[in-house]
Amino acid sequence: MTEALKKLIEATKTLDQSKTDKEQQRRSFAYGNTKFENERITREMIDKQAELLSKNLKR
How far apart are CA 59 and CA 56, in angstroms? Predict the structure, then answer.
């Protein structure tokens, strides 16, 4: 591993993600895992379900 790569890895350990960044990462993770199992899954499906879940949690 190069010294530059080591520095980049260390720098990421202290980064704070915004709520938007975390939500995008969560959706990307969900999409990647479900798409792997079922290729009919779309990003739009993931976004729709995430929005529904968000609305239900706010109640």
Answer: 6
Tokens at 8, concatenated = 């980049």
Q: 47 is in which domain, residue-wise?
A: 16-58
pLDDT per residue as tens digits for the range 13-39: 998 999 999 999 999 999 999 998 999
> Among the residues of 1-59, which ranges form H helices?
3-12, 19-37, 43-58
Place of tokens 């960044």: 21
In a domain, 7, yes or no: no
In this structure, are residues 52 and 44 in contact, taking their beta carbons and an 8 Å threshold? Answer: no
25 belongs to a structural domain? yes
Confidence (pTM): 0.71
Instruction: Convert the pLDDT of each residue in 34-59 to its tens digit.
Output: 998 999 999 999 999 999 999 888 77
